[in-house]
Every structure is written in structure tokens, then in C-alpha cells.
Amino acid sequence: MTGLGSYEPPYSVGTSGTAAREGNATMDFKRVAIIGTDCISASIALGLKAQKEPPEIIGYDADTVAADLARAQGAFDRVERKPGRACQDADLVIVAVPLTRLRETFATIAPHLQPGCLVTDTARLKAPVMRWAEELLPESVFFMGGHPILNPVIVGVEPLEGLEAASADLLREALYCFTTPTRTSSAAIDAFAGLALTLEAHPFFIGVTEHDGLQAGVEGLPDLLAIALLRATVDTPGWQEMRKFAGYRFAVATEAADDAHKRHSVVFLNRENVLRRLNALLSELVRLRDILTHDDAEALEEAFVAAAEGRDRWIEEREQGMWGSERAVSVERIPTAGERIGRLFFGDYMATRLTEGPDHPRRR
Predict the structure, then answer these.
(1) In angstroms, rounded to a whole number, what is the distance separating the alpha carbons of residues 219 and 242?
(2) How many other CB atoms sit within 10 Å of the CB of residue 118?
(3) Model confidence at 4: pLDDT above 70
(4) What is the pLDDT of residues 325-338, one digit of tens each?
(5) Helix or strand or coil: residue 93?
(6) At what angle are helices 271-293 and 221-231 packed, to 10 degrees?
(7) How crowded is residue 218: how many other Cβ atoms within 10 Å of its Cβ?
(8) Contacting residues for 283 by C-beta, under 8 A, at least 6 apart
């Protein structure tokens, strides 16, 4: 994957990131291809269609019923039955297929991508996606990993799935994470930031390692916890009687074990980060075991109270939107390219590396 060189991004960002929200920026994507139909990709399509001069949006999904439904909802202008045909002449290609199908999808669409087009994905794990893009996509296109985190005020903590839930509102005030290849020019940053701003989302550039490390704690670890809980109960001799007592709390605690094929693949592909989180969890479980072994009711209560307070803070911050005071980001930490993007959000690691350069010694 090469840098953008003299390529001009198909988006005019203006002097600040607020331009899109004030209607002062123009989006010059003429044709957008969306490969894969789900709540997120359909919401992106609806957000693009809401523009004053929307692009033509071509959709594809292996499930033709889903693709046709998205078109009926106004997300797609037309539907193609082959992913390669959907990508032809597209200025922007968004790949929104499950992680287990991403690599083969890259291989399928690669010969059909026109030089200079932008390509991104919506997967929640980024390291393998970046590797596959480097391996399979042509050097004439410009890839950046994408992970839209929907507006928490609207979504809450309930699962939001299915095309019926798709809405442009889900991306307004959302956090649109981007992970950049090794060599990324200012024009690439501008272009992908422009996509997020068009959707009225906040661009957030973050390092691949940092992104996947964070994901391991909030997705990979819960998956393993659900598996462990099920194996410690369902696979034991007492389950025949225990299952009669199992109800809502047990169902919620083990919900992460659903869709085993997809979830096991994601955990395995992110296993190094998940292992670090798992070791921390094991240490905490040992501490709780010791508390119970020593009949320490006070320490157990303190552990419960501290955990409840932490969860309450998280829920409250989530209900406020984009984490309150963290919205304020010092522009001194934003790299040269960011000066033209405006008040964007950068992950701590990514901001430091972009500002100081790859050869700058790390801070202790």
C-alpha cells in the first residue's frame, strides 16, 4: 500500500473539523460501493444519502434479500449481484462483511478497484485487516482501517442489529476510529476524516496495537468469560438440576457465547492482546478466591462496591455521549496533517507517534 503522493482527497474539509456540521464543506464522492449489508453499513449509506448532493451508492451482499431490503429503505440506489461489479468506478469502497470473510472479500474486489479510490472496512479488529489489505489490495488504492462506534446516547448498552435499526442518526456524534498504514500522507488523513465529518461523526485516529488491545478487554475477554461460565456449569454433573434455577442473570452472563464461529475467530486473531487481559482477570479471580477462603466479608463487600461504582461511572459517561471532558483535545498534539483537519480525536499512542515521529524515544 503506497502513500497518496499528489492525489487530492475527494473531500474539502476546510479550516476546521466543524465545517461539515456547519454545511461549509463539500463532499465530492460521485460513487460509493458498500460491500456487505448490516446496521452499520446501512447507517453509513443513509448518512451519505442525507447530503445535499449525495453520491450514487451501489450495494452488494451475498444475502440478496438483505441487499434488496437496504435498497427499499433508501440506503442503496441499486444493487449488484457480484461484489466486483459493485466496486467498478467507485471513489469510495466500504467493506462491511464479517471478519471471517474479509480476506476473501479483499481478494475478490481487488482487481475491480479503480486507481485512486479510497477503501475502508468496518471490522472491530484491525491488525489482521491491515495485514490482509497490505497483502491483497493494489498499491494504486488507499486503504485505512475503519471502526465506527455508534452514538452511545442513542444505542445505549443494548445490542443494535438488523437493517430495521439502521439510521443516519446512529453516526451523528459517533466515534469513527481509523487505523493508518505505516506510510500515510496528510491527504489520506484528510480524506478519511472527511468521510467521518460528512456523517457528523468524530474522526479518531488510533494505532492498530492500541485499538486491538482495548478491544480485547471489552469484547474478547467477555467472550472467554461466557465460555468459562458455561463450561463450569453446563458441563458438570449437577447441571440437570441447576438448569431449572438458571434465568435472566445466567442468560445475560453467557450471551457472549452466541455465534461461536464468528466469536472464536475474533478471539483467536487477537489472542496476544486477549491473553494479557486474561492474565489480569485470572489475578483478580485469585484475589476473590482468597477473600472467600479467608471468610473476609468486609473485603468482599468492598470489591462488590468498587466494581459497582466503576460500572455506574461507565454507564453515566456513556449516557453523556463522548465521554465528557475527554472531548477537549489539545491541538498541539495533532500532527501537521491534522492542522487542516481541525479538532480531531487521536488515540494517545497514535497522537504521540504522529507528533514526534517513529524515531523519537518513547516517554516513560
Answers:
(1) 27
(2) 26
(3) no
(4) 454 333 333 344 44
(5) strand
(6) 50
(7) 10
(8) none
Helices (H), 98-166: 99-109, 127-136, 152-155
Q: Are 2 and 115 in contact (CB under 8 A)?
A: no
DSSP character at residue 8:
P
Residue in the structure block whose three cell numbers are 456540521: 21
Residue position matching grid coordinates 467507485: 90
H-only helix segments in the chain: 19-22, 39-49, 64-72, 83-87, 99-109, 127-136, 152-155, 186-198, 208-215, 221-231, 239-242, 248-253, 260-269, 271-293, 297-320, 336-341, 348-356
What is the rounded distance in angstroms from the CA atom of residue 92 to the CA atom of residue 281? 41
Supply the pLDDT for residue 183. 76
Residue 322: per-residue pLDDT? 52
Judge contact between 115 and 140, C-beta under 8 A: yes
154-168, 298-312, 337-351: lowest mean pLDDT where? 337-351
pTM of the model: 0.81
Distance between CA 22 and CA 220 in Å, rounded? 38
Name the amino acid, one letter, at 14.
Answer: G
pLDDT, average across residues 225-244: 93
More confident residue, 6 or 1: 1
CA distance 355 to 333: 6
Beta-carbon contacts of 128 under 8 Å, excluding residues fewer than 6 positions away, are: 99, 102, 103, 269
* Domains, the chain, ordered by start: 11-206+325-355 (3.40.50.720), 211-320 (1.10.3660.10)
CA distances (Å), origin 83, targets 33, 160, 176 = 9, 26, 24
In this predicted model, which residue has the larger pLDDT, 276 or 188?
276
Q: What is residue 75's DSSP assignment?
A: S
Report the C-alpha gap between 177 and 148 in whole angstroms.
6
Confidence tier at 27 by pLDDT (50, 70, 90) = low
Distances (CA, A) of 260 to 67, 224, 243: 25, 11, 21
In the three-class reduction of DSSP (H, G, I as helix; E, B as strand; rest coil), residue 147 is classed as strand
